[in-house]
Predict the structure.
Amino acid sequence: MNKTATSTANTTGNLKEPSAFENEIATKVMDAAFIVHREMGAGLLESVYEECLHDILSDYNLNIQRQAIVPIQFRNKILSNGFRSDLIIENCVLLELKSVEKLNKIDEAQILNYLKLSEIKIGFLMNFNVPLLKDGLKRFIKTN
């Protein structure tokens, strides 16, 4: 994963590394993504990659939520329609899937905000519209 970037969303300044369990789930997610990209290729709709990832991750007997609405806190209230995540795996890894020519800063800002607003520590931004998935894969870690 030479080209995979790790970014952090630092909300309080204290760094807490992901647990062994969280890292294990993240590894399974990356393995599944590489399988999907290798078998399906680049340039399909995001929904196709989401369906394929869900299928593989289900084979691993993981708890997966698709298009999950994640509530957020705003002004000391819980808003039920916070944001919709493409995939959340085992309540510890969040995936934002793309099939675009190039990832933009807004895509990174989106996943960083999703991590900031959720209880999830690890996020992946995955652009499947690339010849090599490693060039479209970015890992983000929320620090608490």
